[in-house]
Design goal:
3-stranded antiparallel sheet, 8 strands, about 55% strand
């Protein structure tokens, strides 16, 4: 969003397809206001996951539930999606058991 930070920023994203997470670099980098992340993983094997316990969280340090516009867990099609997740800083984010 506009005014999320001042200046120019080059960043990288590293995806972990085994653990359904993403790491955003450079870290630490904190925004003046949260940026929004849309992220989907396809081909998810739900045979070892309980979809009713999953949530999308900050993963470095204490788990922190994020605000988001939508969350989609589709076991039939093997999809995990998050939309409009408010990311306050670059770090590692992903799907975890929240229950």
């Amino acid at each position: 969003p506009q005014n999320a930070f001042k200046g120019n920023l080059t960043f990288d994203m590293s995806f972990d397809f085994d653990n359904y997470s993403v790491k955003l670099y450079p870290t630490p980098f904190t925004f003046d206001k949260p940026v929004l992340l849309d992220l989907s993983f396809y081909g998810v094997d739900f045979s070892t996951l309980d979809a009713s316990t999953l949530g999308f969280n900050y993963l470095d340090g204490e788990k922190e539930q994020l605000n988001y516009a939508y969350l989609n867990i589709n076991e039939k099609w093997g999809v995990l999606s998050i939309g409009g997740a408010e990311i306050p800083h670059f770090s590692r984010y992903g799907w975890t058991r929240v229950k």
